[in-house]
Amino acid sequence: METVYIETTIVSYLVASPSRDLIVAAHQAVTQEWWREAREGYRCLTSDQTLTEAAQGDATQARLRLAALAEVVSVPLTGEVEALAAELLACGALPARARADAIHLASATRVQADYLVTWNCRHLANAHILRKLEREAARRGWDLPTVCTPLELRGAEQDATQPDS
Questions:
Q1: 112-144 tens-digit pLDDT
Q2: Taking a C-beta distance cutoff of 8 angstroms, is the pair 25, 19 a contact?
Q3: Contacts of 62 (CB under 8 A, 6+ apart)
Q4: What DSSP letter does each residue of 26-82 carry, written as one string?
Q5: Across-strand partners of 6?
Q6: Is 146 helix (H, G, I), strand (E, B) or coil?
Q7: Is the pTM of this model over 0.85?
C-alpha cells in the first residue's frame, strides 16, 4: 500500500466552509472527494507540524481540522527531520520563510512517503521549486516523495483503473 503524507492545506480545504471563489471551491470539492473515496486506498500519515498548524486560527475550524486528523497517524518532529529541513532551506530551492513547508517535505521524506499531498502551490506543489529540489535530491541522495495535489493523485488513480486504448 502506498503512503501519503497529508499536509495542512488538505485538512484545511477538507473542513472549511464552502468558498465563493470558484477555484478554491473546486479544490475543496476535489479534496472532499479524495478524502471520502480514495484516502482509504493509502496508508496516510501526517506530522506534528501539521497538527500544530491545524490547531491555529479560528477555534471552530481548528477543532474540525484536528478531528479530521484524529484518525491519521502523526509522525514526530525529530532532530533528523529538523536537520533535513535545514538542508532543504540551505540549498536555496525553498525560501527561508518556508521553514514549515521544508519541515513537511522533510517529514514526508524521512518516513519514505510515496506522496506528499498538498494545495500549497507556492512552495510545495510548484514545478519550478520541485525541479530545483529534485536536482538537489539527486545530488545528495535524498529520496523525495512525489509532491502533488489531490487532483493529480486522483488522476493517477483513475488512469490505473482505465484500460489502455
A1: 999 999 999 999 999 999 999 999 888 888 899
A2: yes
A3: 54, 55, 56
A4: HHHHHHHHHHHHTGGGSEEEEEHHHHHHHTSSSHHHHHHHHHHHTTSEEE---HHHH
A5: 117
A6: strand
A7: yes
